[in-house]
Each structure stands twice: as C-alpha cells, then as structure tokens.
Amino acid sequence: LGQLRGNSLCMRMVKAHEAARNITFDWVIKARPDLAVVRPLKAHCLWDPTRVHHRNDYIYISPRHLADPLLEEPFVAHYSCNADYDASAGRPGKPGVLA
Q1: 7, 9, 40, 48: least CB-packed within 10 angstroms?
Q2: What b/e readout covers 50-74, taking b as 16+ CB neighbours within 10 angstroms?
Q3: Which domain of life is it from (predicted)?
C-alpha cells in the first residue's frame, strides 16, 4: 500500500507542476529510487504512445493520458472501498473476500 500511496503522491506533484506552469507533459516517467540506469533510454519519439512501458515495478514510462490510471487511480480505488485493485490485471476489479 505504501507504493500505491507514493505513486499517487507522485502523480499529484506532476499535476501541480503542470497547473503552476500551465503546461501538460507528453510523458511521465516514474522510477524507483533503487533503479540504476546504466545506459541512455531510447528517444521519446521511439516509444509507443498508446501504452505504458515498464520493467516490473522499477520503472514506468507512460504517455500522459495513461499516467492517471497507472499512478493515481489504484490508490483512490483501494481507499474508496468501492473497488479492489487487481495488480495482476493492472486495473480495478471487484472487491474480494479473504478465505
């Protein structure tokens, strides 16, 4: 749950920065602090803008229009108790029951 909260806070900072400067980012990159990048990333024009690119949970490279569902909505869904977050499917699911 800590990572969901951190992702949500990250997205809120992105939105605050965009609002303060009246801009919208094209891409949002979220990386864990223990990620070591040993070579340059591909140029932004070579990434598919219709999907999120990731390496497990170490780094997410997301087009801006997919960043909210990726970084903020899972936290909101979990704490609203209206939906559970199915991490295996990467989307909100039905609330589950512990057996």
Answers
A1: 40
A2: eebeeeeeeebbbbeebbbebbbbb
A3: Eukaryota
Residue with structure tokens 């969901």? Answer: 4
pLDDT at 83 over 70: no
pTM above 0.85, yes or no: no
Concatenating the DSSP letter of every residue in the chain gives -HHHHHHHHHHHHHHHHHHHHT---SEEEEE-TT----SPPPPGGGS-TTS-EEETTTEEEEEHHHHIIIIIHHHHHHHHTS-EEETTTTEEEPPP---
Better pLDDT: 19 or 33: 19
Residue type, 18: E
3 contacts 60 by C-beta, under 8 angstroms: no
- Taken in order 11, 16, 19, 23, the sign of the CA dihedral is negative
Judge whether 24 and 64 are in contact, CB under 8 Å.
yes
Q: Name the residue among 60, 91, 93 with its Cα closest to residue 73.
A: 91
